[in-house]
Amino acid sequence: MSSQQDPAAASAPREIPVVAQRFTFEPARIEVTEGERIRLVVTSADGVHGLEIKKFKVNKKVPRGGEAITIDFVASSAGEFPIVCSEYCGKKHEEMKGVLVVAARSKNR
């Protein structure tokens, strides 16, 4: 057996569970590092929602009933990026927001 790290394990995305419900995302603030591979595992606690992060071309419908959907992307740019509900979900739909905070990667690497 080789002493090298399994390449599949080294490149596995970081999984972050997210719950969408009227009219919030939980967590509302997601912090990651620039260059990190991310897998959001999103479920709805009530009706149909959507999760959109325009900067990373993420936009997926989240079905009712607790069925998990996965969203894979690379956090390729540092900064703060809005997370919005992309499926109309009621009167306060426009207030259903979160933020993805991507910390700049250390230059010492």
Task: Provide an overview of this structure.
By secondary structure, the protein is mainly beta. The protein has a single domain, classed as Sandwich (Immunoglobulin-like), CATH 2.60.40.420. Helix content is 4%, strand content 49%. It has one helix spanning 7-10, and strands at residues 14-21, 24-26, 29-33, 37-44, 49-53, 58-62, 69-74, 79-84, 97-103. It has a four-stranded mixed β-sheet with strand order 2-1-4-7, with no helix packed on it. Strands 3-9-8 form a three-stranded mixed β-sheet, with no helix packed on it. A two-stranded antiparallel sheet has the order 5-6. The longest helix is centred in the N-terminal third of the chain and has 4 residues, at 7-10. The protein starts with 6 loop residues before the first helix and ends in a 6-residue tail after the last strand. The model is unreliable at 1-7 (pLDDT under 50).
Features:
four-stranded mixed beta sheet; 1 helix; three-stranded mixed beta sheet; 109 residues; Immunoglobulin-like; mainly beta
List the helices and strands and how they pair.
Blueprint: H1 7-10, E1 14-21, E2 24-26, E3 29-33, E4 37-44, E5 49-53, E6 58-62, E7 69-74, E8 79-84, E9 97-103
Parallel strand pairs: 1-4, 3-9
Antiparallel strand pairs: 1-2, 4-7, 5-6, 8-9
